[in-house]
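Incident log, entry 3
Record: TetR family transcriptional regulator (193 residues)
Problem: checksum mismatch between cached and fresh output.
Input:
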Amino acid sequence: MVDDSDAGATRSRRADALRNKQTLLDAAAAVFVASGVDAPVRDIAAKAGVGMGTIYRHFPTRADLIVAVYRHQVEACAEAGPALLASCASPYAALGRWINLFVDFLVTKHGLAAILSGDPGFATLHAYFLDRLVPVCAQLLTAAAESEEIRPDIEPLELMRGVGNLCIGGDLDPRYDPRRMVELLVAGLRRVR
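Fresh output:
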């Protein structure tokens, strides 16, 4: 027979482990944005407030950590779409805020694709990215088109690719502001009345 206190303690440990993992992923993403994917693991541990052993317990290799950060960021972006539709004043506002989150994701992912491109699992990871985010973008575009805030002929993958292309090179030229260009792109989606 299982003691209820043992089951509660096990659930508590699992919840703590999940929180630690989420904290590690958030810290790793922040460090990757600031210092690149080659940043020392000790910097990630310091940012997360944990020991290096905790990182290696969750992510035995740097590649495991990079893939986990990538997936974590995709999930955060995917989950934000419906939440923004429910909380924003209009579908167009929700789309704009989601595009900003997508830009944040693209900035975080800077360098991740280069590191992972030689990995045979990268194609699967890219397919995961498309499978999770294209439908969210489509939902936001459909809602904004149905409310007659944007043109109805915008394809989600085209928009995402356009945003991605505008983000290329932002880290190489301080005079180039990809966010400004993306803002102009999103403004151009508006329906002309």
